[in-house]
Amino acid sequence: KEVVLSGIRPTGFLHLGNYFGAMRNFVRMQEEFECYFFVADWHSLTTHPDTKELRSSVLRVIAENIACGLDPEKVALYVQSDVREIAELYLYLNMLAYTGELERTTTFKDKVRLNPGNVNAGLLTYPVLMAADILVHRAVKVPVGKDQEQHIEMARNFAERFNHRYGDVFPAPHAFNYSTKLVKIMSLDGVGKMSKSENQMATLYLADDDDSIRKKIMKAKTDSGPTEHNSEKPDYIENLFTLMKLVSTDDVVQQFEAAFNGCSIRYGDMKKQLAEDMVKFMSPIREKAAAIQNDKEYLAKIMASGAEKARASASKTLAEVRKAVGMQYL
Ligand code: TYM
Fold this sequence. Notes:
Blueprint: E1 3-8, H1 16-29, E2 34-39, H2 41-44, H3 54-67, E3 76-79, H4 85-94, H5 99-103, H6 106-114, H7 121-124, H8 126-135, E4 141-143, H9 149-166, E5 174-176, H10 210-218, H11 235-247, H12 250-261, H13 267-294, H14 296-325
Parallel strand pairs: 1-2, 2-3, 4-5
The chain binds ligand 1.
Residues 5-9, 17-18, 21-22, 40, 43, 130, 133-134, 142, 144-145, 147-148, 183-185, 193-195 line the site of ligand 1.
């Protein structure tokens, strides 16, 4: 079976971007592949050094993934810092990563611009730690949203560089989505991608109650509608259609597509429909997640068994890595 890996940072509440970009694929992939999914708590330290909320965020991410349909019996669901082998592989890969390429990484440049006061070395080597996450299980498919594409390319480069220098240990990992395109869900205000920390009114969190979901959708950015038949959709309108395709029936989507193309669309009606369908979609997830989050014993069991599975796979890889590098002295 091909190996699949993906991670989520525990830096806040999970949102629809995380769900549609990544988690939805996890749920489908668990039926077909050998899957490793984890909470990237080390990665969160690059931007969130304050760890007061960390524990509750980690537990929530685990609970929300299970609520979305991940089955801990079928996959390894674990926390990154429980698998020390990742840190060891990160060290080897750091010697193969060039500071120039790390400095050119888009996410690094964005983070420097946003927070020039905390440009730590961990932020610079973020893609190297990600590569270690992936390669430690010799994963080949990495289900992620569009924003992670460059990181996966870098992981592929580091893997090739390692193989070239020390011999073939790693297969080449690729970003994955069931449809050929990687997903990017935009923020409801039409400014950039939906994200954990940006405008909270424009982000639909999996934990939002029904009224917040309705309010946020009704406030989503629209305009006065097209004036020419079959015109191209502005990206914030396209985004509403994308969300609608994900939660509404085909009939409903077609009806609004036709209205758009015929210049008779009423965005108020569209948003009302989308809000109701979204509430129907999201409320069972929220309720299930809340119940799981309260069951600390169950969560502890899952994290322990996930870590055990992940360590078994990781230690095998590291034994090969040490051998390939020539660091076996006994
Ligand atoms: P993170 O925690 O920012 O996001 C988790 C997943 O959600 C996807 N995503 C989105 N997809 C579509 N539209 C959006 N608006 C949107 N926002 C987030 C992300 O692409 C991601 O798949 N660096 C990673 C975590 C990580 C990782 C890894 C991922 C650490 N090691 C190894 C894969 C493999 C991150 O910060 O994701």
